[in-house]
Amino acid sequence: MTNANPIISIRNVHKFYGQVPALKNISMDINQGEKVVIIGPSGSGKSTLLRSINRLEKVDLGSIIVDGQDVLAPKANINAIRQELGMVFQSFNLFPHMTVLENIILAPTKLKNVPKAEAVEHAMQLLAKVDITDKAMVYPVQLSGGQQQRVAIARALAMNPKIMLFDEPTSALDPETTGEVLDVMVTLAKEGMTMVVVTHEMGFAREVADRIAFMDHGELLEEGTPSHFFNNPEHPRLQRFLEQIL
Amino acid sequence: MSQPEHPPRIEISDGASIPDPWDKRLINAWSISLVGAVSLLTYLCVRYPDVYGKILSLLPEGIIVTFKVTIYSFAATVPIGVLVGIGRLSRNRFINLIASTYVETIRGIPLLVQLFYIFFSLNQLLHVPDFLAAIIALSFCYGAYMGEVFRAGINAINKGQTEAARSLGFTRFQTMRYIILPQAWRTILPPIGNECIAMLKDTSLLSVVAITDVFRIAREYASVSYQYFETYTVIALVYLIITLILSKCVSVMEARLSHYDKR
């Protein structure tokens, strides 16, 4: 799993909530174009790990390098680094006071000074990609959960990020709309996007992941290809976890 | 009342209660009060034109002063409120302490005492003109309450909004400007309107210092004509009518601002 130039390099990361360890000595490299799925029971630290990549959570020890830049350095331009890291949340977090289109063009126009016409054109292409062009002018509250999440993906893509982080993107959705969102993510994966996905969707993991990582109690217990993972899981904790969910 | 969920409202101050914009019934507390006040005032002025009518005719000039003081003070209070509200939420301990101490101090001293204190110190030590001193005093006092309204409004916005904005690369300041404040504004509007109305009522306290507002005119007239009951009846009704109309305006604005959470 070693590579000379991983786009994300996580080294010996620890995080504590008071005395309670949330992440214990995590190291992981992610290469350009790779799709890594992180699974594990609730409270295992998988979301915390994902959120520490763009410093929504600050880790206490270790280093995280994204695209050559040290995320944890006190003088790091975190806002510039975050522009390279699109993030999709479990609860969508669309801006309710803006239309779908405004949600998508806000960041490119304000942060990258993209002219409005150009930003709108790009937004419409993204909306076509997530198959929701007819909703450009409506407010988020008028959309279903699946539609909101697809808009949220388009909004993150509007900044042309190098990496996409997904934090349980389908956990708030019903099975039917989950499919719509996963389809978009599969398309994105096929286009070569680097993706780190925290999810409980084992079908997605099996189909899309280059590598699956299993976490429990803040520890990274096992990593491997989907076939290794589902056919020959080694760690007893992972064997039990897979028995329960499959 | 049985409408589907609409945004939570924060009601903090001692201002008028803002009518519920989703209450479509014709007869409610607001309409009863307004119709009652207007008809009583009309009746008195028509029935006794040389007593009540005369009193009413003296007031317009004072009403203009009352509005002027309120509008200027309100305009100064909103920016103070935004700064104090953000300061109270700041993680910088120094800024947080300054803002919190200001709020704590102001809330612990009666408004009338504060007004006297600030008005006379500005007036005597710094020779600030009366009208300006009154506005500074009132906005300084109300800034603390307004700060609490902004703090509550900003706090009421889901943390996910900040996270989404920050993850796109917005700075703290940009997040506040483009994402949080535009949303907070809507939740904050009723209590802000409320503060504005409370402020209009409290300008009557300035009549004790050197401001010739509507209440000062009334007091002066009562003391020369000895028509205390009649004068204060008119002045109470006038304040009530103004307050009721303003509270309705706030309510209408509130309904307009929440268009985006209606399905």
Task: Give your account of this protein's structure.
The complex is a heterodimer of chains A (246) and B (263). Chain A has helices at residues 46-53, 78-83, 100-111, 116-129, 145-157, 175-190, 202-208, 226-231, 236-245, and strands spanning 8-17, 20-30, 35-39, 61-66, 69-70, 85-88, 163-167, 194-198, 211-216, 219-224. Chain A has 246 residues and is an alpha/beta fold. In chain A, a hairpin with a 2-residue loop joins strand 4 (61-66) and strand 5. The two termini of chain A are 27 Å apart. The mean pLDDT of chain A is 93. Chain B has a single domain (29-262), classed as MetI-like (MetI-like fold). Chain B contains 10 helices and no strands. In chain B, helix 7 (159-168) packs across helix 8 (172-202). Chain B is flat. Chain A binds chain B through residues 54, 56, 79-80, 82-83, 85-87, 89, 91, 93-97, 106-107, 110-111, 139, 141-142, 152, 155-156, 159, and chain B through 158, 160-161, 163-171, 174, 178-179, 182-183, 186, 260-263.
Topology readout:
The complex is a heterodimer of chains A (246) and B (263).
Chain A (H helix, E strand, L loop, with lengths): L7 E10 L2 E11 L4 E5 L6 H8 L7 E6 L2 E2 L7 H6 L1 E4 L11 H12 L4 H14 L15 H13 L5 E5 L7 H16 L3 E5 L3 H7 L2 E6 L2 E6 L1 H6 L4 H10 L1
Parallel strand pairs in A: 3-8, 3-9, 6-7, 7-8
Antiparallel strand pairs in A: 1-2, 1-4, 4-5, 9-10
Helix pairs in contact in A: 3-4, 3-5, 4-5, 5-6
Chain B lengths: L28 H19 L1 H10 L1 H30 L3 H15 L3 H15 L4 H26 L3 H10 L3 H31 L11 H12 L2 H30 L6
Helix pairs in contact in B: 1-2, 1-10, 2-10, 3-4, 3-6, 3-9, 4-6, 5-6, 6-8, 7-8, 8-10, 9-10
Summarize the structure.
The complex is a heterodimer of chains A (246) and B (263). With 246 residues, chain A is of the alpha/beta class. Chain A has helices at residues 46-53, 78-83, 100-111, 116-129, 145-157, 175-190, 202-208, 226-231, 236-245, and strands spanning 8-17, 20-30, 35-39, 61-66, 69-70, 85-88, 163-167, 194-198, 211-216, 219-224.
